[in-house]
Amino acid sequence: MEVTRKNYKDCLNTVYSAIEEADFLAIDGEFSGISDGPNASALTNGLDTPEERYTKLKKHSMDFLLFQFGLCTFKYDQTKSKYITKTFNFYIFPKPFNRTSPDIKFICQSSSIDFLASQGFDFNKVFCHGIPYLNQEEEAQLREQTEERRNQHANGVGTPSYISPSSSKEHVLFYLILPPFLFCKERYIQISKVDEEERKRREQQKLEKEQEELNDAVGFSRVIHAISKSGKLVVGHNMLLDVMHTIHQFYCPLPEDLQDFKEVTMCELITYTSLAELEKQLKESPFKPPQVETAEGFLSYNTAQEQLHEAGYDAYITGLCFISMANYLGSFLTPPKAYISARSKLIEPFFNKLFLMRIIDIPYLNLTGPDLQPKRDHVLYVTFPKEWKTSDLYQLFSAFGNIQVSWIDDTSAFVSLSQTDQVQIAMNTSRYAESYRIQTYAEYIQGRQQEKEKLGQTAKTWGEDSWVKPHYISSTTCGFGYPRCTRAAVHCFVNIINELISFPDEEENPQGTDPSNDADGTVTWQQASTVQGRKGRKKKKKSEGLSGLVNHLN
Amino acid sequence: MEVTRKNYKDCLNTVYSAIEEADFLAIDGEFSGISDGPNASALTNGLDTPEERYTKLKKHSMDFLLFQFGLCTFKYDQTKSKYITKTFNFYIFPKPFNRTSPDIKFICQSSSIDFLASQGFDFNKVFCHGIPYLNQEEEAQLREQTEERRNQHANGVGTPSYISPSSSKEHVLFYLILPPFLFCKERYIQISKVDEEERKRREQQKLEKEQEELNDAVGFSRVIHAISKSGKLVVGHNMLLDVMHTIHQFYCPLPEDLQDFKEVTMCELITYTSLAELEKQLKESPFKPPQVETAEGFLSYNTAQEQLHEAGYDAYITGLCFISMANYLGSFLTPPKAYISARSKLIEPFFNKLFLMRIIDIPYLNLTGPDLQPKRDHVLYVTFPKEWKTSDLYQLFSAFGNIQVSWIDDTSAFVSLSQTDQVQIAMNTSRYAESYRIQTYAEYIQGRQQEKEKLGQTAKTWGEDSWVKPHYISSTTCGFGYPRCTRAAVHCFVNIINELISFPDEEENPQGTDPSNDADGTVTWQQASTVQGRKGRKKKKKSEGLSGLVNHLN
User: Fold this and answer.
1) How many other C-beta atoms can be found within 10 angstroms of the C-beta atom of residue B194?
2) Do the chains contact at B114 and A124, CB–CB below 8 Å?
3) Region entry Disordered: which residue ranges (chains A, B) (predicted)?
């Protein structure tokens, strides 16, 4: 269902009840750009810490506009043994509410706009009919202003007994339609008298109208509030950016600190999990395509041919992938279960984990606890002249086997060696080098920490003014909003499975908490070794694309 | 004629010849926003100096995108005694040329976007089919890169004798279509041999293709170059912003200094004049509606009902107004002349004068000389607590008759008194005030100058980071791109007429320079007193809207 400013109010109850009845929700956003500073490969350096990634996205991605929000609700139908879906495509635009409301400025990135344009994205629909919104502070301000005006009127202050038609809208309360006695362009005054009862009736009407206008101004934020209040499971694809934009645009400015972000995100009761994928891979063994059906009166998507790149479709696909992955977890149970509910305990270990795109060794951001601390003993921090290219680094480290280069900026990069014991040798050989300099990762982190302490909180990694200068698109940019990083996403899924496997004999589905009423109330996890055995039997059937998954289960 | 990326190359010769044959050109731009900092009333303070206005527009308006460029060419047809017009609407978008080309970021202002949306502006056409462009530096860089690659190939460096289909486009030179011997998704290598003659032929083909791609990338900038090279008279409406955007987007970054801007503008051979208006007013006496006809095959506009707010239409209307104004000048000649050519000497005093919108006492920016230095003896600079409103200022100065308030920021404003002799009294009475402070304009300017000298060139009037914060739309905003400041614009026109009148007996139309071949080669200006006499006779006919004009001619 396409939702714009034109049909928004009529759709609101449909949206609310879809959320209310759903077993889980899938969301996806489309943005006017990704980075106003560094290019994609520097913005998502493979060796970012979660703090660094958060800080970079906050600084370089939040001035873009989230202008399409896709919501797909999934409700399991017991009798049909399939999910019933309802997809909503919300078009969002901060149309100024009145002359005192904020005049929002947002950045567009030409590569992102060009990508969306090539996918048939309808910009006219966004800009002409987008639904407005307010964040919480703006909403509070507007309510306060309305309240203040109301009190002034109640106290008789500023209540006009006559008004001119040219005065502002909120004073037109006692305006009666009289034949204008002057037709030329000059101002005229119209006088009318009203009795006390009529005055009160109109006052009441006006209050109701004001309330409605206020709700209109809050606009799309009401949908986000409903999602948040529902407490339903929300799944997304590479959704860190979606979550950050959602908080920033519809709730409040993002906190400086990652820890505070985690708290804001949780206290808003939005429960997120990160499961992402390529839908095609999840149609293949060992996954099974999920059974779904579109609710009557809703847009039906055909996954066989890829649709327009729109947020609703992406949310739908994300939901499908979640179902496939969840059901796949069921195959490890004894006896195996074909359907795993969104409320199943099996899913819980995946809650509140946001996939960190393109970070080599930290698959997800953990919203409800400390983040993973990967060992980076094999990583070197290298500085060099700005003329150097990746090939120069390969040449420099040619003696040390395979390396992986993660560019930081023009004159520095992380170089990961394949073997940690080579690190000391590399350090030794570089001692007398003049054109370049090598530090261990530990030395680098220590240096940065010291620098940070020296500068207080003002340490800056990227130039403040860099966004207006032209930046160059890296060849590693894999599109906009929906990067095809499937392998990495499945990787992330698998990493969480690994954690999960360390909880054998975990109870699934305690009586009464799962509305899907599975026949067997309890199930047991197979031991990791058994899983390996299973996988061994399946090995010949699995597709090449899932080798990462299988490797991780070893 | 609508010109997009799709038909751009086919239209180019039509555009070139329209420019070449024209007597004058009218231009107009549509932008993605106006101000990323102060609101409209602060951006265009009525007492700005030309330097201040230039600096503010440079700082707060240049990160928006000029995404529609209207060009209307006017050619006078002797036999028909009317102008033949050709209107072009160019849609402009900085689509990245390839993966190494700049990924431009631009700001959108929601009020401006909303205004354009309400006028039916087609954003899809801009973003999907906009013509790309490069500024001079980007063009030079691209040419250099191409040249470098060419030389490398010529020297045999990097010339691949075999390539894989996955390598980048510029290396696909020797790729021959062979039946792929592997159909799966794995990479494959194709080998082909070519003889020397074939190699040279392909090399030549490649050079031509590169040249074409390079021209495609320069894109719309070629039209601007053609306008510039033509040396034709270019008229616009409130065109300071158009000129600044045109230089900034298609030529080079704007210089810091107004003086340098004047030089850049002139050295680019773009001759501009500022004549702006409301078309309707210029249909009324003493003006006459101009005789125009649309060239065959070109979009015809109906001025009776206002069209979409598009750049081509605005350029067309601007041209009509110019003709009316120019012909009106002819009515002051003895004998009066109904048609004044765009090459007439009568027009010259208006050349290179850019209308300064909403500056009270400096009607235009003079590109070819020093700017007007208005007396501001009656102006006070007042600072006060941020709670103050305009009404507080009116109350404070209630003893001094009518005042005019020009807000600078939350805590300061210029207050113009109607009588200069009141200034000293106001200063005296304020001496012991604690909540506010008054300075004369002269004191204020002196203070600023001293501050500037202290800070070097880093004096900042507006907060550096202010653009991302929400700003409030002033009620004085009169729309986007096409503010209805007609009276002020006619004012500007009239101010220039006043200057003009100080050159009596100026020769118009020296033999051989005017292709329209007027019968009388010379004419004389009437003295100012005679003009007054003429106007006196016409007084009863004039419309009320032109009182400003007539007053100025007195």
Assistant:
1) 14
2) no
3) 144-163, 505-554
- For tokens 């021209």, the residue is B215
The full length of chain A comes to 554
Q: d(Cα A155, Cα B271) in Å, to the nearest integer?
A: 61
Alpha-carbon distance of B98 to B28, in angstroms, equals 29
Report pTM: 0.71
Question: What CATH architecture is B379-452?
Answer: 2-Layer Sandwich (3.30)
- Looking at mean pLDDT, say which of B84-93, B203-212, B407-416 comes out highest: B84-93
Alpha-carbon distance A359 to A379, whole Å? 14
Distance CA B499, CA B401 (A): 31
Pairing of strands B233-236, B271-274: parallel
Whether omega before A165 lies within 30 degrees of 0, making that bond cis, reads no
The class of domain B2-137+219-366 in CATH terms is alpha beta
CA distance A65 to A68: 9
Using CA atoms, how far residue A470 sits from A473, B34, B249, in Å, is 10, 21, 12
Is B122 in Cβ contact with A127 (below 8 Å)? no
More confident residue, A303 or A123: A123
Instruction: Identify the CA nearest to B545 among candidates B478, B487, B482.
Output: B487
What's the ipTM?
0.70
For the segment A20-46, what is each residue's pLDDT rounded down to a tens digit? Answer: 999 999 888 999 999 988 877 778 787
Q: How far apart are CA A371 and CA A369, in angstroms?
A: 6
Q: For A37, name the nearest residue in chain B, comparing CA atoms only.
A: B105
CB atoms within 10 A of CB B131: 26
Query: Do the chains contact at B470 and A104, CB–CB below 8 Å?
Result: yes
Name residue, tokens 């004419």.
B523
- Work out the pLDDT band at A497, boundaries 50, 70, 90: very low
- Contacting residues of A for B114, CB less than 8 Å apart: 93, 95-96, 127
Q: Which distant-in-sequence residues (6+ apart) come within 8 Å of A316 by Cβ?
A: A26, A70, A72, A85, A87, A301
| Burial classification of residue B463, based on how many CB atoms lie within 10 Å of its CB (0-12 exposed, 13-18 middle, 19 or more buried) | exposed
Cβ contact A345:A396 at 8 Å: no
Burial class of residue A82 (count of CB atoms within 10 Å of its CB; 0-12, 13-18, 19+): middle
pLDDT digits (tens, 9 = 90+) for B288-335: 778 888 898 887 777 655 555 678 888 888 888 788 878 888 888 888
> Tokens for B43?
């951006």
CB A41 within 8 A of CB A474: yes
Interface test with A, best of B60, B103, B391, B484 (most A CBs within 10 A): B103
- Chain B CB contacts of A138 under 8 Å are 470
Distance CA A311, CA A245 (A): 14
Angle between helices A196-218 and A136-154 (to 10 degrees): 170
Q: How many contacts (CB atoms, under 8 Å) link A and B?
A: 125
In the 8-state DSSP scheme, what is residue A469? Answer: S
Q: Indicate the helix (H) or strand (E) that contains A382.
A: strand A379-383
Q: How many angstroms separate the CA atoms of B389 and B325, rounded?
A: 40
Q: Does A96 sit within 8 Å of B114, measured CB to CB?
A: yes
Is the dihedral angle over the CA atoms A10, A11, A14, A20 positive or is it negative?
A: negative
Nearest to A29 by CA among A234, A302, A299: A234
Copy the structure tokens of residue B315.
């350029």
Radius of gyration (Cα) for chain A, nearest Å? 28
| A62 touches A107 (CB < 8 A) | no
pLDDT band at B117 (very low <50, low <70, confident <90, very high): very high
**Which residues have CB under 8 Å from A7's CB, separation 6+?**
none
Tell me the chain B residues in contact with residue A31 when contact means C-beta distances shorter than 8 Å: none
Per domain, the residue ranges of chain B are 2-137+219-366, 379-452
Element of type H or E holding A497: helix A486-501
The helix (H) or strand (E) run that includes residue A12 is: helix A8-21
